[in-house]
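Example 3.2
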Amino acid sequence: MQENNPFLVMDENRNRIDIHPELRIIFDFLIQIESEVKEFLGYNKRLLALKKQCSEILDLVLKLNPPEDFKFTLSEHPETLADKFHFGRPIRCEFIVLFAHLETLRCLNTAYEKKTSDRNELKDASDKAMDKFLNEFCLCKNNQWVAKNSERARNICAKDLRELRNSLTHFFSVSKIGLSPLSKDEIAAMNKKIKLKIQFLSSDDLNEILYSAARLLLGKWSDDCKKHLSENDSNFLDRIRCVKDVVFQNGARFISDQDMNKIMGKIEKI
C-alpha cells in the first residue's frame, strides 16, 4: 500500500479494516457515535439489571436479624428502593437519536459522492437525496437486517422511513409506521397475527439497520480504494479527503475535565 496516500481496505469477510493514519479521525468519529447510541439504547436493560440486583440485596437485608444495639436510620424504607428503578423507555427519543445517526451517515456519503466539504452543498435535505441513501444502504438486500427480516422489509419503503424521520424530528410524533418497544420476537408475532397490515418498527430494528448501513458504506469506500490502488484512480483520494475534512470541520469536540481545568485556569488569569 502507498503509505503517502490515505487508504481504507476491508478484508473479504468485512471483519477487519486497514486504514491510513490520516483517516483515523473518520473512524474515531463513527466509532464514538455508535458507542454512544449503544449506551443510550442500553439504559433500560442496565436499570432492570440494577433493579434485580437491588431487590436481591433487599431480600437478604430484610431477612437478617440486626443486634438490639444496632441503630441506623434510613431516609426511606428499603422496600421503596427497587421502585426507584422503574423506567419508562423513551422510544421517540431513541428514534430521534437514531435518525440523527442516519443523517450523519447520509452527510458523509454526500461529501464522498459529491467530492465536497462545503456545508451548503452537504445540506441536501431533499426527499430524493434521503431516499437514495436509504435504498442504497438501509433497505437494500445486502443490509443484514433486511436479509434477516425480508418479509418485514418488503413492506417498508424509503418514503416510509423518511416520513417517520420527518415526523419525529419535526413534530415529536409518528407517521405511518408504528413505533414499538417490543422485542424482536414480539414484533414478529404481532406482524404475523395482523398479517403485516400494520408495520411495526422498534428502535432496536433501526439501530441494526444503521449498523449494517455504516458497514456497507465503508465497504463501498473500500472497493473504491482497491480500484485506486490497482488502477491509480485519484477519485478515491479526492472523495475520502472530503469526508475527513467534513468530520474535522464539523465534528463536535469533546473536552475532558483536565482540558476544562486548563481552559478555566487561563480564563481566570485574563
